[in-house]
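Hey all, sorry for the wall of text incoming. These are the two entities for the joint prediction.
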Amino acid sequence: MASETVESTATTDRRSVRGRLGLDGEALRGWATVAPVILLYLFVAVTPVAFAIYASLFEVPLLNPNWTFTGLSNYVEVLTMNSFWSSLWLGALFMIGSTVVQLLVGLWIALVLNQLDRGQRFLTAVAFTAYLVPTVIVVLVALFMFDVEVGVLHIAGSTLGLWGERTFALGDQTWAMPLVVLVGSWKFSIFVTIFTLAQLRAIPDRFYEAAKICGASRWEMFRDITLPRITGVLLIAVLLRAVFMFNKFDIIWMLTEGGPAGATTTLPILAYRTAFLHNDYGVANAMAVVMFVFLAIGAYCYFRAFDPTAEVNT
Amino acid sequence: MSTPTETETPSETETEGGTQLSYETRDRLYHLALYGSAALFSAVILFPIYWMIQNAFTDSQTVITEFSWLPSPETVTLDNFGVLAAGAVPRYVINTIVVTAGTIAVVVGISLVAGYGMARFRFRYKESFAQFLLLGYMFSPIVLGLPLYLIWSEIGLLNAQIGLVIALSSISMPFAVWLMWKYIQTIPESMEESAWIAGASRWRTFWDVVVPQTKPAIVACALFAFAIAWNDFTFAQILLPSQESTTFAPGIMRLIDQGGYTSWGDIMAVSLLMTVPPLLFAYFLQEYLLKGFEVRTR
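and here's what came out:
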Protein backbone atom coordinates (compact mmCIF):
# COMPACT_ATOMS: atom_id res chain seq x y z
CA MET A 1 0.00 0.00 0.00
CA ALA A 2 2.79 2.43 0.89
CA SER A 3 4.76 4.13 -1.84
CA GLU A 4 7.16 1.64 -3.39
CA THR A 5 9.07 4.30 -5.29
CA VAL A 6 12.35 4.32 -3.41
CA GLU A 7 12.88 0.57 -3.28
CA SER A 8 16.38 1.11 -4.65
CA THR A 9 19.37 -1.14 -4.87
CA ALA A 10 21.67 1.40 -3.22
CA THR A 11 22.43 0.23 0.28
CA THR A 12 24.51 2.57 2.33
CA ASP A 13 23.29 6.14 1.97
CA ARG A 14 20.78 7.55 4.41
CA ARG A 15 18.11 8.14 1.86
CA SER A 16 17.77 4.50 0.97
CA VAL A 17 17.44 3.43 4.59
CA ARG A 18 14.63 5.89 5.02
CA GLY A 19 13.30 4.76 1.69
CA ARG A 20 13.21 1.11 2.70
CA LEU A 21 11.19 1.99 5.78
CA GLY A 22 9.00 4.24 3.64
CA LEU A 23 9.86 7.20 5.79
CA ASP A 24 8.96 10.19 3.67
CA GLY A 25 7.38 13.24 5.31
CA GLU A 26 3.90 11.78 5.14
CA ALA A 27 4.92 8.49 6.71
CA LEU A 28 6.74 10.34 9.49
CA ARG A 29 3.60 12.28 10.28
CA GLY A 30 1.61 9.07 10.10
CA TRP A 31 3.89 7.39 12.61
CA ALA A 32 3.77 10.50 14.78
CA THR A 33 -0.01 10.22 15.06
CA VAL A 34 0.17 6.63 16.27
CA ALA A 35 3.22 7.18 18.47
CA PRO A 36 1.15 7.71 21.66
CA VAL A 37 -0.58 4.38 21.10
CA ILE A 38 2.74 2.65 20.58
CA LEU A 39 4.15 4.27 23.72
CA LEU A 40 1.16 3.17 25.79
CA TYR A 41 1.52 -0.34 24.45
CA LEU A 42 5.22 -0.50 25.14
CA PHE A 43 4.59 0.82 28.61
CA VAL A 44 1.59 -1.25 29.64
CA ALA A 45 1.64 -4.36 27.49
CA VAL A 46 5.11 -5.17 26.15
CA THR A 47 7.15 -4.16 29.21
CA PRO A 48 5.02 -6.09 31.73
CA VAL A 49 5.17 -9.27 29.69
CA ALA A 50 8.93 -8.95 29.30
CA PHE A 51 9.23 -8.10 32.97
CA ALA A 52 7.09 -11.08 33.95
CA ILE A 53 9.33 -13.41 31.95
CA TYR A 54 12.39 -11.84 33.60
CA ALA A 55 10.95 -11.91 37.13
CA SER A 56 9.83 -15.50 36.68
CA LEU A 57 13.52 -16.49 36.63
CA PHE A 58 14.10 -15.11 40.11
CA GLU A 59 12.97 -15.78 43.61
CA VAL A 60 11.28 -12.53 44.57
CA PRO A 61 9.97 -12.02 48.08
CA LEU A 62 7.69 -9.03 47.60
CA LEU A 63 8.78 -7.03 50.61
CA ASN A 64 12.47 -7.67 50.07
CA PRO A 65 14.46 -5.92 47.35
CA ASN A 66 16.97 -8.78 47.00
CA TRP A 67 16.20 -11.02 44.10
CA THR A 68 17.84 -14.42 43.83
CA PHE A 69 18.39 -15.84 40.39
CA THR A 70 16.95 -19.33 40.28
CA GLY A 71 16.73 -20.02 36.55
CA LEU A 72 13.80 -22.14 35.53
CA SER A 73 13.14 -23.53 38.98
CA ASN A 74 10.01 -21.39 39.35
CA TYR A 75 8.57 -23.11 36.29
CA VAL A 76 9.54 -26.50 37.67
CA GLU A 77 7.85 -25.53 40.92
CA VAL A 78 4.72 -24.38 39.09
CA LEU A 79 4.52 -27.49 36.94
CA THR A 80 4.97 -29.83 39.89
CA MET A 81 2.49 -27.99 42.10
CA ASN A 82 -0.71 -29.92 42.72
CA SER A 83 -2.61 -26.67 43.12
CA PHE A 84 -1.46 -25.54 39.68
CA TRP A 85 -2.95 -28.57 37.96
CA SER A 86 -6.12 -28.49 40.00
CA SER A 87 -6.60 -24.79 39.28
CA LEU A 88 -5.91 -25.41 35.59
CA TRP A 89 -8.64 -28.03 35.67
CA LEU A 90 -11.04 -25.73 37.56
CA GLY A 91 -10.19 -22.93 35.17
CA ALA A 92 -10.99 -25.14 32.19
CA LEU A 93 -14.26 -26.11 33.85
CA PHE A 94 -15.11 -22.47 34.51
CA MET A 95 -14.13 -21.46 30.99
CA ILE A 96 -16.06 -24.19 29.19
CA GLY A 97 -19.13 -23.90 31.44
CA SER A 98 -19.25 -20.12 31.10
CA THR A 99 -18.67 -20.12 27.35
CA VAL A 100 -21.36 -22.70 26.67
CA VAL A 101 -23.94 -20.98 28.88
CA GLN A 102 -23.12 -17.55 27.49
CA LEU A 103 -23.17 -18.71 23.88
CA LEU A 104 -26.54 -20.45 24.20
CA VAL A 105 -28.24 -17.74 26.25
CA GLY A 106 -26.69 -14.88 24.30
CA LEU A 107 -27.63 -16.35 20.92
CA TRP A 108 -31.12 -17.11 22.14
CA ILE A 109 -31.65 -13.54 23.35
CA ALA A 110 -30.30 -12.12 20.08
CA LEU A 111 -32.62 -14.29 17.97
CA VAL A 112 -35.63 -13.38 20.10
CA LEU A 113 -34.81 -9.66 20.02
CA ASN A 114 -34.38 -9.78 16.26
CA GLN A 115 -37.77 -11.43 15.73
CA LEU A 116 -39.87 -9.20 17.98
CA ASP A 117 -42.36 -6.89 16.26
CA ARG A 118 -43.20 -4.88 19.32
CA GLY A 119 -41.08 -3.60 22.17
CA GLN A 120 -37.87 -4.39 20.36
CA ARG A 121 -36.16 -1.13 21.24
CA PHE A 122 -37.16 -1.33 24.88
CA LEU A 123 -36.15 -4.97 25.29
CA THR A 124 -32.83 -4.37 23.58
CA ALA A 125 -32.16 -1.68 26.16
CA VAL A 126 -33.15 -4.13 28.91
CA ALA A 127 -30.71 -6.73 27.57
CA PHE A 128 -27.88 -4.21 27.21
CA THR A 129 -28.50 -3.13 30.78
CA ALA A 130 -27.22 -6.43 32.10
CA TYR A 131 -23.96 -5.96 30.23
CA LEU A 132 -23.55 -2.42 31.51
CA VAL A 133 -24.22 -3.10 35.18
CA PRO A 134 -20.72 -2.94 36.68
CA THR A 135 -19.24 -6.29 37.69
CA VAL A 136 -18.90 -5.21 41.31
CA ILE A 137 -22.61 -4.37 41.47
CA VAL A 138 -23.50 -7.75 39.99
CA VAL A 139 -21.38 -9.28 42.74
CA LEU A 140 -22.83 -7.15 45.55
CA VAL A 141 -26.40 -7.93 44.50
CA ALA A 142 -25.51 -11.63 44.16
CA LEU A 143 -23.94 -11.66 47.63
CA PHE A 144 -27.09 -10.01 48.98
CA MET A 145 -29.40 -12.43 47.16
CA PHE A 146 -27.46 -15.44 48.48
CA ASP A 147 -27.21 -14.05 52.00
CA VAL A 148 -28.03 -16.75 54.56
CA GLU A 149 -30.37 -14.51 56.55
CA VAL A 150 -32.42 -12.63 53.99
CA GLY A 151 -31.18 -13.58 50.53
CA VAL A 152 -34.06 -14.16 48.17
CA LEU A 153 -32.20 -16.75 46.06
CA HIS A 154 -30.88 -18.43 49.19
CA ILE A 155 -34.43 -18.82 50.47
CA ALA A 156 -35.67 -19.98 47.06
CA GLY A 157 -32.88 -22.55 46.84
CA SER A 158 -33.31 -23.89 50.34
CA THR A 159 -37.07 -24.13 49.90
CA LEU A 160 -36.50 -26.19 46.77
CA GLY A 161 -34.07 -28.32 48.77
CA LEU A 162 -31.00 -27.40 46.70
CA TRP A 163 -29.02 -26.45 49.76
CA GLY A 164 -29.54 -26.42 53.52
CA GLU A 165 -31.23 -23.59 55.35
CA ARG A 166 -27.99 -22.51 57.03
CA THR A 167 -25.70 -23.13 54.04
CA PHE A 168 -24.19 -20.13 52.28
CA ALA A 169 -24.57 -21.37 48.71
CA LEU A 170 -21.50 -19.49 47.41
CA GLY A 171 -19.49 -21.06 50.22
CA ASP A 172 -20.69 -24.56 49.45
CA GLN A 173 -18.29 -27.07 47.91
CA THR A 174 -20.71 -28.28 45.24
CA TRP A 175 -22.57 -25.07 44.48
CA ALA A 176 -19.82 -22.46 44.43
CA MET A 177 -18.53 -23.19 40.92
CA PRO A 178 -21.90 -23.50 39.12
CA LEU A 179 -23.16 -20.35 40.84
CA VAL A 180 -20.07 -18.34 39.93
CA VAL A 181 -20.56 -19.47 36.32
CA LEU A 182 -24.22 -18.45 36.40
CA VAL A 183 -23.64 -15.08 38.06
CA GLY A 184 -20.94 -14.30 35.49
CA SER A 185 -23.17 -15.41 32.65
CA TRP A 186 -25.97 -13.11 33.81
CA LYS A 187 -23.74 -10.26 32.75
CA PHE A 188 -21.59 -11.66 29.96
CA SER A 189 -24.17 -13.53 27.86
CA ILE A 190 -25.14 -10.16 26.46
CA PHE A 191 -21.68 -9.83 24.95
CA VAL A 192 -22.62 -12.65 22.56
CA THR A 193 -26.00 -10.99 21.98
CA ILE A 194 -24.43 -7.67 20.99
CA PHE A 195 -22.02 -9.34 18.58
CA THR A 196 -24.76 -11.46 17.00
CA LEU A 197 -27.48 -8.83 16.89
CA ALA A 198 -25.44 -6.44 14.74
CA GLN A 199 -24.86 -9.26 12.27
CA LEU A 200 -28.50 -10.41 12.32
CA ARG A 201 -29.70 -6.92 11.50
CA ALA A 202 -27.39 -6.83 8.52
CA ILE A 203 -29.15 -9.79 6.82
CA PRO A 204 -31.42 -8.31 4.12
CA ASP A 205 -35.15 -8.95 4.56
CA ARG A 206 -35.47 -10.02 0.94
CA PHE A 207 -33.69 -13.30 1.67
CA TYR A 208 -36.43 -14.26 4.10
CA GLU A 209 -39.15 -13.00 1.76
CA ALA A 210 -37.78 -15.09 -1.09
CA ALA A 211 -37.55 -18.14 1.17
CA LYS A 212 -41.10 -17.63 2.35
CA ILE A 213 -42.39 -17.51 -1.23
CA CYS A 214 -40.66 -20.83 -1.81
CA GLY A 215 -42.52 -22.25 1.18
CA ALA A 216 -39.63 -22.55 3.61
CA SER A 217 -40.48 -23.14 7.25
CA ARG A 218 -39.05 -21.00 10.03
CA TRP A 219 -36.61 -23.69 11.00
CA GLU A 220 -35.41 -24.01 7.39
CA MET A 221 -35.01 -20.24 7.14
CA PHE A 222 -33.00 -20.23 10.35
CA ARG A 223 -30.84 -23.15 9.27
CA ASP A 224 -30.19 -22.03 5.69
CA ILE A 225 -30.22 -18.23 5.88
CA THR A 226 -29.57 -17.05 9.42
CA LEU A 227 -27.12 -19.63 10.74
CA PRO A 228 -24.57 -19.50 7.88
CA ARG A 229 -24.47 -15.74 8.17
CA ILE A 230 -23.79 -15.64 11.90
CA THR A 231 -21.46 -18.63 12.19
CA GLY A 232 -18.39 -16.45 11.64
CA VAL A 233 -19.32 -13.92 14.25
CA LEU A 234 -20.35 -16.66 16.69
CA LEU A 235 -16.96 -18.29 16.34
CA ILE A 236 -15.25 -15.01 17.15
CA ALA A 237 -17.56 -14.44 20.12
CA VAL A 238 -16.90 -17.95 21.44
CA LEU A 239 -13.16 -17.56 21.07
CA LEU A 240 -13.17 -14.17 22.81
CA ARG A 241 -15.46 -15.39 25.58
CA ALA A 242 -13.30 -18.47 26.16
CA VAL A 243 -10.12 -16.41 26.36
CA PHE A 244 -11.72 -13.76 28.59
CA MET A 245 -13.26 -16.31 30.93
CA PHE A 246 -10.01 -18.28 31.20
CA ASN A 247 -8.37 -15.07 32.42
CA LYS A 248 -11.29 -13.93 34.54
CA PHE A 249 -10.21 -12.72 37.92
CA ASP A 250 -12.58 -10.05 39.18
CA ILE A 251 -15.93 -11.79 39.44
CA ILE A 252 -14.51 -14.99 40.97
CA TRP A 253 -12.35 -13.16 43.46
CA MET A 254 -15.14 -10.88 44.57
CA LEU A 255 -17.69 -13.68 44.91
CA THR A 256 -15.60 -16.35 46.61
CA GLU A 257 -11.92 -15.32 46.74
CA GLY A 258 -11.26 -18.75 45.27
CA GLY A 259 -12.95 -20.62 48.08
CA PRO A 260 -14.45 -22.63 49.63
CA ALA A 261 -11.32 -24.72 50.14
CA GLY A 262 -10.10 -23.87 46.66
CA ALA A 263 -13.29 -24.96 44.89
CA THR A 264 -13.20 -21.89 42.63
CA THR A 265 -9.45 -21.28 42.53
CA THR A 266 -8.79 -20.89 38.83
CA LEU A 267 -5.36 -20.01 37.49
CA PRO A 268 -5.69 -16.19 37.79
CA ILE A 269 -6.84 -16.56 41.40
CA LEU A 270 -3.95 -18.87 42.20
CA ALA A 271 -1.47 -16.43 40.65
CA TYR A 272 -2.89 -13.54 42.65
CA ARG A 273 -2.80 -15.54 45.88
CA THR A 274 0.75 -16.66 45.20
CA ALA A 275 1.93 -13.09 44.62
CA PHE A 276 0.14 -11.21 47.35
CA LEU A 277 -0.82 -13.71 50.02
CA HIS A 278 2.12 -16.13 49.78
CA ASN A 279 4.60 -13.40 48.84
CA ASP A 280 6.04 -15.51 46.07
CA TYR A 281 6.19 -12.98 43.29
CA GLY A 282 8.58 -14.94 41.07
CA VAL A 283 6.37 -18.03 41.00
CA ALA A 284 3.31 -15.82 40.39
CA ASN A 285 5.04 -14.31 37.40
CA ALA A 286 5.84 -17.76 36.09
CA MET A 287 2.09 -18.44 36.26
CA ALA A 288 1.40 -15.15 34.49
CA VAL A 289 3.76 -16.26 31.74
CA VAL A 290 1.94 -19.59 31.47
CA MET A 291 -1.36 -17.69 31.19
CA PHE A 292 0.20 -15.43 28.61
CA VAL A 293 1.16 -18.46 26.53
CA PHE A 294 -2.47 -19.56 26.60
CA LEU A 295 -3.48 -16.05 25.57
CA ALA A 296 -1.00 -16.08 22.72
CA ILE A 297 -2.44 -19.37 21.48
CA GLY A 298 -5.89 -17.80 21.70
CA ALA A 299 -4.65 -14.74 19.84
CA TYR A 300 -3.20 -16.93 17.12
CA CYS A 301 -6.51 -18.73 16.66
CA TYR A 302 -8.26 -15.37 16.67
CA PHE A 303 -6.06 -14.17 13.82
CA ARG A 304 -6.66 -17.33 11.87
CA ALA A 305 -10.42 -17.16 12.34
CA PHE A 306 -10.72 -13.44 11.80
CA ASP A 307 -8.26 -12.07 9.30
CA PRO A 308 -7.82 -8.39 10.15
CA THR A 309 -6.15 -7.55 6.83
CA ALA A 310 -9.37 -8.46 5.08
CA GLU A 311 -10.93 -5.56 6.95
CA VAL A 312 -8.17 -3.16 6.09
CA ASN A 313 -9.01 -3.38 2.40
CA THR A 314 -12.72 -2.72 2.78
CA MET B 1 -37.03 -7.74 10.08
CA SER B 2 -40.60 -8.77 10.67
CA THR B 3 -41.08 -12.22 9.19
CA PRO B 4 -44.40 -13.27 10.77
CA THR B 5 -47.90 -11.76 10.96
CA GLU B 6 -48.59 -10.57 7.39
CA THR B 7 -48.66 -14.06 5.91
CA GLU B 8 -51.48 -15.59 7.90
CA THR B 9 -53.54 -16.40 4.85
CA PRO B 10 -55.64 -19.55 5.17
CA SER B 11 -54.51 -20.90 1.80
CA GLU B 12 -51.12 -21.71 3.24
CA THR B 13 -52.52 -24.33 5.59
CA GLU B 14 -53.45 -26.50 2.64
CA THR B 15 -49.88 -26.96 1.58
CA GLU B 16 -49.03 -28.66 4.88
CA GLY B 17 -49.35 -32.39 5.38
CA GLY B 18 -52.39 -33.66 7.28
CA THR B 19 -50.36 -34.88 10.25
CA GLN B 20 -48.86 -31.46 10.98
CA LEU B 21 -50.45 -28.72 12.96
CA SER B 22 -52.14 -26.02 10.95
CA TYR B 23 -50.15 -22.97 10.02
CA GLU B 24 -52.12 -20.80 12.40
CA THR B 25 -51.58 -23.07 15.36
CA ARG B 26 -47.90 -23.25 14.69
CA ASP B 27 -47.76 -19.51 14.21
CA ARG B 28 -49.50 -19.01 17.51
CA LEU B 29 -47.15 -21.45 19.25
CA TYR B 30 -44.22 -19.67 17.68
CA HIS B 31 -45.40 -16.32 18.96
CA LEU B 32 -46.08 -17.79 22.36
CA ALA B 33 -42.52 -19.12 22.49
CA LEU B 34 -41.13 -15.85 21.17
CA TYR B 35 -42.88 -13.60 23.64
CA GLY B 36 -42.51 -16.17 26.41
CA SER B 37 -38.76 -16.13 25.84
CA ALA B 38 -38.71 -12.35 25.84
CA ALA B 39 -40.66 -12.29 29.10
CA LEU B 40 -38.40 -14.92 30.68
CA PHE B 41 -35.10 -13.25 29.86
CA SER B 42 -36.48 -9.83 30.79
CA ALA B 43 -37.54 -11.22 34.16
CA VAL B 44 -34.15 -12.83 34.78
CA ILE B 45 -32.37 -9.61 33.85
CA LEU B 46 -34.72 -7.23 35.59
CA PHE B 47 -35.40 -9.07 38.83
CA PRO B 48 -31.97 -8.52 40.43
CA ILE B 49 -32.16 -4.87 39.40
CA TYR B 50 -35.65 -4.56 40.87
CA TRP B 51 -34.47 -6.29 44.03
CA MET B 52 -31.58 -3.86 44.35
CA ILE B 53 -33.84 -0.83 43.88
CA GLN B 54 -36.49 -2.08 46.27
CA ASN B 55 -34.00 -2.72 49.05
CA ALA B 56 -32.14 0.51 48.42
CA PHE B 57 -35.29 2.35 49.42
CA THR B 58 -36.20 0.09 52.34
CA ASP B 59 -35.32 0.84 55.93
CA SER B 60 -32.01 -0.93 56.55
CA GLN B 61 -33.30 -2.69 59.67
CA THR B 62 -36.28 -4.06 57.76
CA VAL B 63 -34.01 -5.29 54.96
CA ILE B 64 -32.27 -7.74 57.29
CA THR B 65 -35.23 -8.79 59.40
CA GLU B 66 -38.23 -9.06 57.14
CA PHE B 67 -38.70 -10.41 53.68
CA SER B 68 -41.21 -8.97 51.28
CA TRP B 69 -41.63 -9.03 47.54
CA LEU B 70 -43.07 -5.55 47.33
CA PRO B 71 -42.05 -2.34 49.02
CA SER B 72 -44.49 -1.25 51.69
CA PRO B 73 -45.20 2.44 52.39
CA GLU B 74 -44.19 2.27 56.08
CA THR B 75 -40.66 1.11 55.42
CA VAL B 76 -39.80 3.23 52.39
CA THR B 77 -36.96 5.56 53.24
CA LEU B 78 -34.10 7.53 51.75
CA ASP B 79 -31.89 7.00 54.81
CA ASN B 80 -29.73 4.38 53.08
CA PHE B 81 -28.40 7.02 50.72
CA GLY B 82 -26.78 8.65 53.74
CA VAL B 83 -23.95 6.18 53.10
CA LEU B 84 -22.78 8.68 50.49
CA ALA B 85 -22.34 11.41 53.07
CA ALA B 86 -20.11 9.65 55.57
CA GLY B 87 -17.45 7.00 55.95
CA ALA B 88 -15.13 5.72 53.26
CA VAL B 89 -17.66 5.09 50.50
CA PRO B 90 -17.89 8.67 49.14
CA ARG B 91 -14.13 8.75 48.60
CA TYR B 92 -14.26 5.49 46.62
CA VAL B 93 -17.04 6.84 44.43
CA ILE B 94 -15.16 10.07 43.74
CA ASN B 95 -11.98 8.13 42.96
CA THR B 96 -13.92 6.00 40.47
CA ILE B 97 -15.32 9.11 38.79
CA VAL B 98 -11.85 10.68 38.56
CA VAL B 99 -10.31 7.52 37.08
CA THR B 100 -13.19 7.06 34.63
CA ALA B 101 -13.07 10.67 33.44
CA GLY B 102 -9.31 10.45 33.01
CA THR B 103 -9.56 7.22 31.04
CA ILE B 104 -12.24 8.62 28.73
CA ALA B 105 -10.17 11.75 28.05
CA VAL B 106 -6.98 9.81 27.33
CA VAL B 107 -8.69 7.18 25.17
CA VAL B 108 -10.70 9.65 23.08
CA GLY B 109 -7.75 12.02 22.60
CA ILE B 110 -5.21 9.39 21.61
CA SER B 111 -7.56 7.34 19.45
CA LEU B 112 -8.80 10.40 17.56
CA VAL B 113 -5.30 11.42 16.55
CA ALA B 114 -4.19 7.86 15.78
CA GLY B 115 -7.38 7.06 13.86
CA TYR B 116 -7.00 10.22 11.81
CA GLY B 117 -3.37 9.45 11.06
CA MET B 118 -4.18 5.89 9.99
CA ALA B 119 -7.04 6.99 7.79
CA ARG B 120 -5.31 9.95 6.11
CA PHE B 121 -1.58 9.23 5.95
CA ARG B 122 -0.08 6.45 3.92
CA PHE B 123 2.76 4.68 5.64
CA ARG B 124 4.27 1.28 5.42
CA TYR B 125 3.54 -1.40 8.03
CA LYS B 126 0.21 0.25 8.79
CA GLU B 127 -1.54 -3.11 8.47
CA SER B 128 1.02 -4.80 10.70
CA PHE B 129 0.47 -2.05 13.21
CA ALA B 130 -3.28 -2.62 13.10
CA GLN B 131 -2.75 -6.33 13.73
CA PHE B 132 -0.37 -5.56 16.55
CA LEU B 133 -3.13 -3.39 18.05
CA LEU B 134 -5.64 -6.23 17.91
CA LEU B 135 -3.18 -8.33 19.85
CA GLY B 136 -3.81 -5.95 22.74
CA TYR B 137 -7.37 -7.19 22.76
CA MET B 138 -6.09 -10.45 24.15
CA PHE B 139 -4.20 -9.04 27.13
CA SER B 140 -6.01 -9.53 30.38
CA PRO B 141 -5.79 -7.33 33.45
CA ILE B 142 -4.51 -10.14 35.67
CA VAL B 143 -1.65 -11.08 33.34
CA LEU B 144 -0.58 -7.44 32.97
CA GLY B 145 -1.42 -6.42 36.52
CA LEU B 146 0.94 -8.82 38.29
CA PRO B 147 4.12 -7.50 36.60
CA LEU B 148 2.78 -3.93 36.52
CA TYR B 149 2.56 -3.99 40.31
CA LEU B 150 6.35 -4.00 40.76
CA ILE B 151 7.01 -1.76 37.73
CA TRP B 152 4.55 0.83 39.01
CA SER B 153 6.00 0.67 42.51
CA GLU B 154 9.52 1.19 41.08
CA ILE B 155 8.54 4.32 39.17
CA GLY B 156 6.17 5.64 41.82
CA LEU B 157 2.89 5.06 40.03
CA LEU B 158 1.61 2.55 42.56
CA ASN B 159 -1.33 4.06 44.43
CA ALA B 160 -1.42 6.93 41.92
CA GLN B 161 -4.66 7.21 40.02
CA ILE B 162 -2.80 8.29 36.90
CA GLY B 163 -1.14 4.86 36.91
CA LEU B 164 -4.55 3.19 36.83
CA VAL B 165 -5.69 5.57 34.06
CA ILE B 166 -2.68 4.60 31.93
CA ALA B 167 -3.32 0.89 32.44
CA LEU B 168 -7.04 1.15 31.67
CA SER B 169 -6.46 3.36 28.63
CA SER B 170 -4.10 0.91 27.04
CA ILE B 171 -6.54 -2.00 27.28
CA SER B 172 -9.22 0.22 25.69
CA MET B 173 -6.95 1.17 22.79
CA PRO B 174 -7.51 -1.64 20.27
CA PHE B 175 -11.24 -1.04 20.10
CA ALA B 176 -11.01 2.75 20.18
CA VAL B 177 -8.30 3.12 17.52
CA TRP B 178 -9.89 0.62 15.15
CA LEU B 179 -13.26 2.31 15.49
CA MET B 180 -11.85 5.79 14.86
CA TRP B 181 -9.81 4.57 11.93
CA LYS B 182 -12.77 2.84 10.30
CA TYR B 183 -15.04 5.77 11.02
CA ILE B 184 -12.76 8.48 9.67
CA GLN B 185 -12.31 6.43 6.48
CA THR B 186 -16.01 6.92 5.81
CA ILE B 187 -15.71 10.73 5.96
CA PRO B 188 -15.01 12.18 2.49
CA GLU B 189 -11.63 13.84 2.24
CA SER B 190 -12.91 16.58 -0.05
CA MET B 191 -14.07 18.80 2.80
CA GLU B 192 -10.60 18.79 4.30
CA GLU B 193 -9.10 19.55 0.92
CA SER B 194 -11.30 22.58 0.46
CA ALA B 195 -10.26 23.77 3.92
CA TRP B 196 -6.59 23.42 2.92
CA ILE B 197 -7.22 25.38 -0.25
CA ALA B 198 -8.77 28.09 1.91
CA GLY B 199 -5.45 28.15 3.74
CA ALA B 200 -6.17 26.17 6.90
CA SER B 201 -3.33 24.19 8.44
CA ARG B 202 -3.49 20.44 8.78
CA TRP B 203 -4.03 20.69 12.53
CA ARG B 204 -6.75 23.31 12.13
CA THR B 205 -8.49 21.20 9.51
CA PHE B 206 -8.35 18.21 11.79
CA TRP B 207 -9.79 20.18 14.67
CA ASP B 208 -12.50 22.14 12.80
CA VAL B 209 -13.48 19.80 9.97
CA VAL B 210 -12.75 16.21 11.01
CA VAL B 211 -13.43 16.20 14.74
CA PRO B 212 -17.01 17.55 14.52
CA GLN B 213 -17.87 14.85 12.01
CA THR B 214 -16.57 12.01 14.17
CA LYS B 215 -19.04 12.64 16.98
CA PRO B 216 -20.72 9.19 16.81
CA ALA B 217 -17.33 7.49 16.94
CA ILE B 218 -16.24 9.71 19.83
CA VAL B 219 -19.39 8.80 21.74
CA ALA B 220 -18.86 5.10 21.07
CA CYS B 221 -15.21 5.27 22.17
CA ALA B 222 -16.09 7.27 25.26
CA LEU B 223 -18.77 4.74 26.16
CA PHE B 224 -16.36 1.88 25.70
CA ALA B 225 -13.71 3.56 27.85
CA PHE B 226 -16.39 4.36 30.41
CA ALA B 227 -17.46 0.73 30.57
CA ILE B 228 -13.86 -0.47 30.95
CA ALA B 229 -13.03 2.01 33.71
CA TRP B 230 -16.35 1.85 35.58
CA ASN B 231 -16.20 -1.96 35.53
CA ASP B 232 -12.61 -2.37 36.51
CA PHE B 233 -11.77 -4.31 39.63
CA THR B 234 -8.59 -6.23 38.87
CA PHE B 235 -6.28 -3.35 37.93
CA ALA B 236 -7.53 -1.17 40.78
CA GLN B 237 -7.19 -3.99 43.29
CA ILE B 238 -3.58 -4.60 42.29
CA LEU B 239 -2.39 -1.09 41.40
CA LEU B 240 -4.18 0.91 44.11
CA PRO B 241 -3.59 -1.13 47.26
CA SER B 242 -4.04 1.77 49.67
CA GLN B 243 -7.50 2.50 51.03
CA GLU B 244 -7.05 6.22 50.36
CA SER B 245 -6.64 6.12 46.62
CA THR B 246 -8.61 3.04 45.62
CA THR B 247 -11.77 2.99 43.54
CA PHE B 248 -15.23 1.80 44.45
CA ALA B 249 -15.01 -1.89 43.53
CA PRO B 250 -11.93 -2.89 45.54
CA GLY B 251 -12.82 -0.38 48.25
CA ILE B 252 -16.24 -1.78 49.05
CA MET B 253 -15.08 -5.39 48.77
CA ARG B 254 -12.32 -4.70 51.31
CA LEU B 255 -14.82 -2.99 53.61
CA ILE B 256 -17.09 -6.03 53.48
CA ASP B 257 -14.16 -8.41 53.98
CA GLN B 258 -12.60 -6.62 56.88
CA GLY B 259 -15.37 -5.34 59.06
CA GLY B 260 -18.18 -7.66 58.15
CA TYR B 261 -19.82 -4.53 56.82
CA THR B 262 -23.19 -5.92 55.82
CA SER B 263 -25.73 -3.18 56.06
CA TRP B 264 -27.40 -4.48 52.92
CA GLY B 265 -29.65 -1.43 52.70
CA ASP B 266 -26.62 0.88 52.44
CA ILE B 267 -24.85 -1.40 49.97
CA MET B 268 -27.91 -1.61 47.74
CA ALA B 269 -28.30 2.17 47.85
CA VAL B 270 -24.77 2.85 46.69
CA SER B 271 -25.00 0.00 44.17
CA LEU B 272 -28.05 1.67 42.68
CA LEU B 273 -26.20 4.96 42.36
CA MET B 274 -23.25 3.26 40.66
CA THR B 275 -25.63 1.52 38.24
CA VAL B 276 -27.59 4.59 37.18
CA PRO B 277 -24.98 6.16 34.83
CA PRO B 278 -24.53 2.98 32.74
CA LEU B 279 -28.29 2.50 32.63
CA LEU B 280 -28.84 6.02 31.31
CA PHE B 281 -26.19 5.44 28.66
CA ALA B 282 -27.67 2.08 27.71
CA TYR B 283 -31.01 3.62 27.07
CA PHE B 284 -30.12 6.87 25.35
CA LEU B 285 -27.09 5.78 23.37
CA GLN B 286 -27.91 2.25 22.28
CA GLU B 287 -27.84 3.16 18.60
CA TYR B 288 -24.31 4.51 18.96
CA LEU B 289 -23.26 1.35 20.76
CA LEU B 290 -24.68 -0.90 18.09
CA LYS B 291 -23.08 1.22 15.39
CA GLY B 292 -19.74 0.91 17.11
CA PHE B 293 -20.01 -2.85 17.34
CA GLU B 294 -21.13 -3.06 13.72
CA VAL B 295 -18.00 -1.27 12.54
CA ARG B 296 -15.99 -3.52 14.78
CA THR B 297 -17.42 -6.87 13.76
CA ARG B 298 -17.78 -6.45 10.01
